[in-house]
Please model this.
Amino acid sequence: MRKHRYESASRKAEPVRSRYRRYSPDERNVNTLYLCLRPGNIRGVFYAAEQIPDQQNKKKGIKKMYENLNTQKKTVKLAKMGMLVAISVVLVYLIHFPIFPAVPFLEYDPADIPIFIGTFAFGPLGGLAITVVTAVVQGTTVSAASGVYGILMHVIATGSFVLVAGIIYKRNKTRKGAVIALAAGSLTWIVAMFFANLIITPYFMGVPRAVVMDLMPFIVAFNAIKAGGNSLITFLLYKRISAFLHK
Model:
């Protein structure tokens, strides 16, 4: 039988040396073109492309895997944030008592401790999200008597704290950074609630601003005790449970 002028492209090509590099059928990163020569006939030159796995499909698969992993991490993070919201609601339901008998409506509760811990674990925006959700849930369930006023004041007080404390701790995640963050957050809370009570309380409670000013020493002291006390407990607890929150 007469041989074809060109060898079959399906036949395995032998390695060929060029001036600058040696081409081999075993290369894997690109669709390599092999220069095949028929012995005794230099004009018998042709190119054959070796079929290898599509690298683009591999990259897409890896990208998809990382996307699924990120989605799983986000889901776990949301679940942990929801757990902190639930703990906060349970705490305000179980523990609440007045600090000053003269103003019994100013009640201490440890409900902000899970929110402070969530702020250190998930950052200022995560802490703010936990704050808003917790305030709404509390204001419509266990603290429904306070209504919109309670929700708004809760968001202002705790929200101002978590934004300041969260930003500071995010930049300096040390014991010293935690102390500075909690102290700055507490001070921000006190100042924010001073002005919030002057502006918002007369409108919602229907009392003159002068009455609010008469109660301001109790209000400032109450906010200092609540913010400071919850900050101290957060400082003592956070490192014990931070490993779980960061898993």
About this structure: Residues 16-53 form one domain.
